[in-house]
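fyi for ur records
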Amino acid sequence: MEQSKKYLQGITGHEEEEDTNGHTVPFFSIEMRYLEVYYRMLSIISKVPFLRFLKNELTHSDKIKVATAKVKTFYKYAEQKDLFTKWLTELQKDGNLLAFDNKIKIHKPILRNSRFFIVDEPALTPNRLDHLCNVFYNKYPKFTMAVVDYLNIIRVPDSKEWKTQIQLAENLKGYARKYNITLLSPYQVDSTLEARYAKGILDAFDRAFTFAPADPDDKENENRLTLYTAKIRNGKNTTFSVGMDWECVSIDNTLISTKNINSKLLPGSQYGSGKTEQGKEQAKDV
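which gave:
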């Protein structure tokens, strides 16, 4: 109880950063249910281990961390600080996270300009994806990125055929250009880290990277992922590693390493750095 109280005092005394960018990002989930994606997101922002959500084993301290991270991440905290402080104090006393969430549903506090949407679409088709991107494009001026999880299971006839997979990759690239967004989509690889169904899907990509976990016997690097360049347009191949917080399924910024890389990460591969001649952000495709 005392530990969670200190956490509450520390976080609520910190003003939120100015919400000026306001980027909107939809996450199109085909494989995972909405709730699983939502729990993963809460785990990432609160640093509460993901399995505690799935097993319904959140401690009192966990609940304070989750609720506080939620209002700081999704809502304009500084403008509604008194209201959130009141609700968090009540949560501190009763530990009822469900009641806290119900207050948010009823009172509908002001959301931040930056929005993250989870779109649960197990039967996502290319046409449906195009339609939904069009909705976001027309409603949110700073719709700048979309994530499709994942390329190989988008719903189409003969989905496992190599020609179909190539066409899907070309469709995604087309949507990225059409809506001027960065579009990210994982794809399956085989034991050699090659694209599983069709190597030709890489033809459409501007950048493609394969993730390789550390050797299980390598205790020094067990919390790292190495990323290898499978395809990069207008740049050099890059290999680099990032630290992983496996309990929260997120990148651990304290463990990012530039050790043993063969070149620097290219500025053009960093999100939001591309510019057109008119000064507008340039789309960086899959």
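The first helix runs from residue 2 to 12. thats all i got for now
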